[in-house]
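Morning. Coffee machine broken again, so started the prediction first thing and wrote up yesterday's gels while waiting. Chain of 173 residues, entered below exactly as on the submission form.
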Amino acid sequence: MNTHLTEYFDHYEPMIYGVLKSLTIHRYHPHYEDLVQTSRLLLWELLVQTDDLPQTEQERYQLGGYLYQRIRWRIIDLLRRDNQYAGHVDIYNPIEEMTEVTDLPSRPEIPSVEYLLTHEWQQLPPHLRTYLIATVDYQLTITEIAKNLNVSRQTLYTWRKQLQQHLNNWQTT
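Came back before lunch.
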């Protein structure tokens, strides 16, 4: 029975990486390995709890959908829990200790944020603003942005170069 379960485990294990990919959890995520191990344990638990393992290809497919959804839900629950507790951590911020604005370190080569948001932002063409929002605020990949904006990936690479040129011009002025 155990070797039979191992065969099913080996068959469904690659699905774990598909679940993580669908949730945009990549290898560089700080909890990636933990999530993989948790998913493996859950997959094994679910296979052990299954009364009769599938015999036909259709039954395997149906079980795969069930396992995929259960693993996905568990990972989402874990991520929600981590985010819930992450907000309760006190982080030392030295700027809070500064009493006056004059205490801030002066760096004349870096303009104020207000200037950037009002002046430089207005200087960017709308398509570059859209690209910047998608990459910074929503942290979308080039492929996801291309799909959402109905443009090619090559167009987005061109936009990225244009944005870099704008930033370089801004730094030199």
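The longest helix spans residues 57-86. Going to sketch it on the whiteboard this afternoon.
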